[in-house]
């Protein structure tokens, strides 16, 4: 996969990054920046197979972008590299923090017994009062249209509802970068639009790190 597979969902295209003109990441302007990112896997026969080849991209803050490309071109791999779940074989990456990654299959992520507990799970690392946690969980669930499901056991949710709960967990942490793998897997078109619009509203104040 190269940067031609990266399509912005709004306004005009930013020209591809020319790494020779830049010496440091422009963290004021870009929420995500990758330079000549390569990722290869080693087969059981010891052969290296390239998946990402010299992939460079810059994504400005406050915008929604989509990665488009054919099956198997490397979209999920690039997202995992940006999320820090995979280490690039070569290249450099900057991603603004806090960042969150929502898996293609929400069963990998929605693990607590109830919706409320699951959305609150990631907040455990912050020094918040119970009231602050409750308030963040309520706002995040409202953002994804799941306020009525607060006390529901997660195993009773549909795939799309689980995906919304996973997104609410990311929003509750006021992530600055939200990496969504295959938003289309479980959400229908209306739900995708709703989540995208709501996720861009600044309802939750960011944490100070
Ligand atoms: N651990 C691995 N070992 C071998 N090949 C892998 C590994 N991980 C990914 N691949 C291969 O890398 C390529 C890119 O996979 P990736 O999941 O990133 O594609 P994708 O663009 O997200 O595909 P899709 O649209 O089908 O979800 C695929 O050909 C896949 O088989």
UniProtKB/TrEMBL annotation:
GO cellular component terms, A-Z: membrane
Gene Ontology biological process: transmembrane transport
Keywords: ATP-binding, Nucleotide-binding, Transport
Xref: CDD domains: ABC_cobalt_CbiO_domain1 (cd03225)
Top-level taxonomic group: Eukaryota
InterPro entries: AAA+_ATPase (IPR003593), ABC_transporter-like_ATP-bd (IPR003439), ABC_transporter-like_CS (IPR017871), ABC_transpr_CbiO/EcfA_su (IPR015856), Molybdenum_import_ModC (IPR050334), P-loop_NTPase (IPR027417)
Gene3D superfamilies reported in the protein's UniProt record: P-loop containing nucleotide triphosphate hydrolases
SMART domains: AAA (SM00382)
Boundaries of every ABC transporter domain copy: 32-208
Protein name: ABC transporter I family member 10, chloroplastic isoform X2
Gene from which the chain derives: LOC104606741
